[in-house]
Amino acid sequence: MDSDEEYYDDYAADQEPSFRSHTEITPHELTSALHSLVLLRNDVYLGLQVTNLTVVDQFIMNLENQTLQEYIQTDKTPPTTLFLNAQSQMWIFAAYEFLRTWRARARDIIKLANNGGLELKATSLEEDQGYLHAGREMRAKQLREIAADPSIIETIKIAYSFFEARAPQSVLRQT
Known about the structure:
Distance between the termini: 56 Å
Strand content: under 5%
Number of helices: 8
Number of domains: 1
Helix content: over 70%
Structural class: mainly alpha
Largest sheet: none
Number of strands: 0
Order of helices and strands: HHHHHHHH
């Protein structure tokens, strides 16, 4: 066998795709992966962001498949391509915002834990505002759970350092 034959035997386009079909990917997979991040258990806001990302992800996967099928049938770029591109870009922005928010919360909790301020911050959040503030109550409860279980802060530190190691330096300077 000469080198040309060897090259063509390994030609990537002749291989089976290394990705799964959109029909094999369940919404639960993305939800489960994102909920594995510490701080999501009692955070309604971040939980809603996960739900929204999952719903839009499923929509985009179906639209990608429809657009691909139309392209294969017509051999022309389908009109839906522009809409698909816009939806994909908005999904990326939403995913970035989710991770940015998570990182900011994790960073704040790490600072509070390092300074011994988790309980103090929780007490401050629980002060009467003259009205029910579910977000403050949720956050105070979260801080008290973290203060009561030091393993949670260690898990947060590990996850936070994982994101910091992979974030572009320009992103790190903004925070």
